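Hey, resending since the last one bounced:
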Amino acid sequence: MRKKLLLTAGLLFSGLAQAQTQKGNGILGGGIGFDYSQQTNSSFKRIELSPSLDLVYGQFVAKDWLIGANVQFAGQYNRISPEQANENRDQRNRGLVNPFFRRYWAVGSVLVFAGAGVSAGFDNTQADAPLGSATTGKVRTTSYSVSPTVEAGATYFLSNRLALQGAISSTSLPVLAGDINLGLVYWTGPTGTGKDNSNTKLTTTQAGNWIVEGGFSAFGNKQVISGAGETREARGTTFSINTSIGRFIAKNTLLGIGLGFSTNTQTQTPTISNSTYQTYSIAPYVQRYLSNRRLTPFLRGAVEYSSNRVTSSDQRVNGIQGSVGLGLAYLISNRFMVETSLANASYQVVNFDEKNRVHVASLSARLGSGFSLRYVIAGRK
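The structure tokens again:
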């Protein structure tokens, strides 16, 4: 009976693998982003724009063989408008195109792949002459690059259309196992992946559960300078701590708050100038999981207030930021789940003083740009 069950499971996985990598299916991944920043004070106004694009698309042209391309673009555009001087502009555009091919193999419920391609990129900068200089005109710089790419990775399917992909890449052989690029890919085509995302009986997001997170770091340095009959010593210490606590106030609804503190102290002996900078932050949030399935989308909204001050003066910088986001969570067990952001929009205002203020707006959408593992503490029944 045991052998019969194992054989049945093996045939099932084999059938799924054939459907996943058959001709006509494909993959889609990547994302887009846009950042806007505006700084104003009594003497000038500065505006920065930063669009970005990173898309991957591939199509199975034969069983287990995929041909695709990765297209990347990043732009940065700055404009400074002084009160009593000419406007100054600069920009930078970077782009990359990487056509590639892959061969897939089924190993149990995982697909492993290896591939190669050619990457061609450019980097172009253009800037006005520096403010206050005697010269006028623009400075342009352009560079190009072409290199081979080789990669290896694996794909694990989470649902009928979504899969988790991890890959390592290099410009030469052998491919060293360094940083792993993790992301989500969307499986296109008529059959999908064949994996069901059914309702789960896990109690991860039930009312009364808690999520507690946080960490701290400390750093110190010392520099001694001797000479001319004099010895000077400079010391620096940095300490930061953050924590977040949330409670499921209802099924699939998480309400929480984050707190942060950091301090940086710089001292010199003999005393020339000593200073301590301290930053406080508080960030309430609410998160709503949208289904009872193992792989479920969620909505998140948060507001963060931060204050930075120098202890030796009345100087203080205050900021407030609001954000809304769409994400995806995978419930591993009753105690663990993995989350990633799919789309996020935020707006931040930083006040240095009454006449110096920074506005920052950000909008991004990406198919799995980073993952977090969260531990759930069971509430009392």
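DSSP finds one helix and 17 strands in the chain.

Sorry for the duplicate.
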